Amino acid sequence: MAAPSGRSGRRLWAALVPVAILCLAARAAEEASTAEFDVRPGGEVHSFSRSLGDYTCTFTYSAQGGTNEQWQMHVGVSEDNPLFSCSVWRPQGKSYLFFTQFKAEVKGAKIEYAMAYSQAAVGGQSDIPLKQEEFEITETTVSHREGKFRFELSKLMIVAKTPRDEL
């Protein structure tokens, strides 16, 4: 299949590539783990981590308002180990907490693709991504951008490339 051409085609292609990477990572996952955790309001900084082999994903946040919300973290490593994925989300779709900060960090791999969402897809609704200026991506972290983040977070997705051993 050839890549779409033209300006709108490039935008479509740019949108499809990350989705394809995530699908391949999910399908090829030899090892995977999903865990539930509570996101707690109160303004204190909390962290939740999951490790799989040599790779770790840590979600650190501070939130205000409401009561505890049940969230999930999924980590996976593709069959031949080139990709490590980490997803953090609220299964009910939208969080009603006000996040004052967030950061997801991966150890043992470098981020290839990441996205943050104000609302996760549920009940026929689509994911609603944060605006690009609301968060920043480095080699190992995805975090809120001070002064730009609008306090809404419901989902984070990261695909990171693992180091390859050369023979």
Automatic annotation (TrEMBL):
Entry GO terms, CC: extracellular space
Pfam families: UPF0556 (PF10572)
InterPro entries: MYDGF
Keywords of the record: Signal
Signal peptide stretch: 1-28
BP terms from Gene Ontology: positive regulation of angiogenesis; positive regulation of endothelial cell proliferation
Name listed for the protein in its UniProt record: MYDGF factor
Organism expressing this protein natively: Nyctiprogne leucopyga
